[in-house]
Amino acid sequence: MENKRFKYSPITKEKDLDELIEEIGGARVVMLGEASHGTSEYYTWRTAISKRLIEDKGFTFIAVEGDWPECYTVNRFVKGYQNSGRKIADVLGVYRRWPTWMWANWEVAALVEWIRDFNHIRNAQHKIGFYGLDVYSLWESLDQVLKYMEQHDGKAAEAARVAVQCFEPFHRDPQTYAQATAFVPTDCENEVIQMLEQVAKRVVYPDDPEHEFNTTQNALVAVNAEKYYRAMIRGGVGSWNVRDSHMMETLDRLLEFHGPNAKAIVWEHNTHIGDAQYTDMADDGMFNIGQLARERYGRDRVKLVGFGTYQGNVIASRSWGAPMQKMDVPPAKEGSWEHMLHEMSTDDKIILSKDLKEVPELQRRIPHRAIGVVYDPKVEHLGNYVPTLIPDRYDAFLYFDETEGVHPLHMKTRGAKEPELYPWNY
């Protein structure tokens, strides 16, 4: 369909994804974004795209903006490992840390069910994986390393015990640990590095390679989480960059682990997958996994797909750690990317960046909505729009004129002690 500004394609059914799948071509990494962590349509259409990539283009695994230990539990379930659980809702109950609704929701349950069914008739080497890229699970990862090493390697287990003991005075509270290291010239950095070194020396068991990878990854999470929490208390962009560097390192490790023909699908917020070089994030010295992946693998091998909406409702919280609630998402502010797309038509649509290159009004930074887990619709115009050079930040964009909140499983939530992220909550 032609428009006086640029070309777009309406999207109403899975068949309408053909143009996007063709644009993805031979990419090795496809990153699928979201403009919030609580919108149903983002999850549903990312699932539809992921199915096509797995079935038509042989993609190997999905890696998400979630914690490694919890997502590895889901990975065990979808691959049918022994004692990995029977019911999807019970398995997703592993997501107990706030914000639970990000992964403990019915939209993710549908994805998990599809992957498990897809894997059922495939041998172990060709089963689709599900992994977490994030860095928050310091204590959970330490616990898993210690438990595994106590069963397999006494020397490495001792290194893990020393690391755990170093953190014990802080009562499993990342903020307490971060604040302490800001004022006292001591921390647990050496202990977690020594633990990682001991774990890395282990011989890989040929009959259980993924379990070994899981243990090593948990050790790496502990190392980088310790860096993250120390950087966070100092403020500035340091903690953001530590976090996205860890995500990129984990993605690298997963691709290497799955072999030279491996292909990855990444689900994260637009602020992580949309190339930060083409936003005001770059002005503050921030980078993200989308930028790092393009630099590492090349733009032809990495496709970045953003998502956005004009209005609707969303699941989010009023403050860090507060109960989730359904909130109205007001019409996008005038002059924003979302407002521009709404003014063109109320169609849900796919826009390819190659069709935007010659549009004069897009060759500048324009406001682009971003909603975090903490949200206040009344003041979103003050801080929820990222100045963005759209044609370069993404390779494609999926727009939905009106969206609904995700459907949580309504499970109890562990308290959230982490301070808010800079400068948003993504």
From the alpha carbons, calculate the radius of gyration and give it in angstroms.
21 Å
- Structural class computed from helices and strand pairing: alpha/beta
Q: What's the mean pLDDT score? A: 86
Question: Topology as H/E string?
Answer: EHEHEHHHEHHHHHHEHHEEHEEHEHE
Determine the strand fraction and express it as a percent band: 5-15%
Helix percentage = 40-55%
CATH architecture annotation of the largest domain: 3-Layer(aba) Sandwich
How are the SSEs placed, and which strands pair?
Elements: E1 9-10, H1 18-24, E2 29-32, H2 40-57, E3 61-67, H3 68-78, H4 88-92, H5 106-119, E4 129-134, H6 138-152, H7 154-167, H8 174-183, H9 189-200, H10 209-234, H11 238-258, E5 264-267, H12 270-273, H13 289-297, E6 302-316, E7 325-329, H14 337-344, E8 349-352, E9 366-369, H15 380-383, E10 385-388, H16 390-393, E11 396-403
Parallel strand pairs: 2-5, 2-6, 3-4, 3-5, 6-11
Antiparallel strand pairs: 1-8, 6-7, 8-11, 9-10
Helix pairs in contact: 6-7, 6-10, 7-9, 8-10, 9-10, 10-11
InterPro entries: Emycin_Estase, Hydrolase/PRTase-associated, UCP036794_erythomycin
Protein name: Erythromycin esterase homolog
Pfam family, one: Erythro_esteras
Verbal overview:
It comes from Pontibacter lucknowensis. This is Erythromycin esterase homolog. Pfam families: Erythro_esteras (PF05139). The protein has 16 helices and eleven strands. With 426 residues, it is an alpha/beta fold. The protein has two domains: 230 residues, EreA-like (biosynthetic domain) (EreA/ChaN-like  fold, 3-Layer(aba) Sandwich), CATH 3.40.1660.10; 110 residues. The strands form two sheets. Strands 1, 2, 3, 4, 5, 6, 7, 8 and 11 form a nine-stranded mixed β-sheet that branches. Strands 9-10 form a two-stranded antiparallel sheet. The protein starts with 8 loop residues before the first strand and ends in a 23-residue tail after the last strand. The relative contact order is 0.18.
